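ingest -> validate -> predict -> emit
validate: passed (alphabet ok, no gaps, 293 aa)
predict: started
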Amino acid sequence: MQATIQNSVQISGIGLHTGCQVSLELNPAPADTGIVFRRVDLQGFEIEALRERVSRVVLATTLMKKGVMLSTVEHVLSALYGLGLDNLYLDISSLEVPILDGSALPFVEMVQKAGIQTQEKDRTFLKVQKTFRLQEGSKFISIEPSSTFRISYEIDFAHPAIGHQVLDLEMTSEAYAKEIAFARTFGFRSEVEELRRKGLIRGGSFENAVVLSETEIMNGPLRSPDEFVRHKTLDLIGDISLCGYPLIGHIKAHKAGHALHTDLATALVRDPTLCRKVKEPDLLQVESSRLSA
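emit:
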């Protein structure tokens, strides 16, 4: 069944790139609404969390509708998708979602505080029908048929604190909350000044990102030894949520990023041969037949 939250819940913080103070309130929404941002500073202007609204994917995922922008949406969308929520209004007071501690954990805790409410409407899933791959040089992302939603992510950084990391995980709501939500965004000290000259990361600090010097982590300890690949997986989940439906398929990513993530979401929506829409009762019936065979 579709799900929303039981009660409204609010949080405040600063935007990673704008440095502006912003408040965010999660509110219940009716079945079949989807995830919709409302810019309360602009008379409640609505921006749907869909791939067609993506305008920019440099260091964060930015949505835009009729010239109205909303940036750094991937962490909150990751939490909502990871926890299996379908319908919410996200009322926000500025043009960037607050970065908080740099992970999705505060958003997970918001949902847990609000409570989850099932709705009298079946979920519709996108079930992958065939293998598809996108590649840019040494980077790639692919998806293939599977009976579950699974992610295999691999990164390889020429930095002694990161190096080669691999994560392979079946993405249930329990696994997301335990294994992914806590992982923080990360960046390199050597890039800070250049990014700030470009008007980015004005709100970045040791409190909301893992920062690396040329040789070490400047604000450890890490929350897990492989926190970096877990955060990349967190970003992927937020970006793939923009396809608008829960996904049944196995995503494999190698050194990918927001651009490849969102390009995959676009392909899933636009190519009718990649996926088919399946109602939840039909999906459960197929799974039951498979297990009894």
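The chain has a mean pLDDT of 94.
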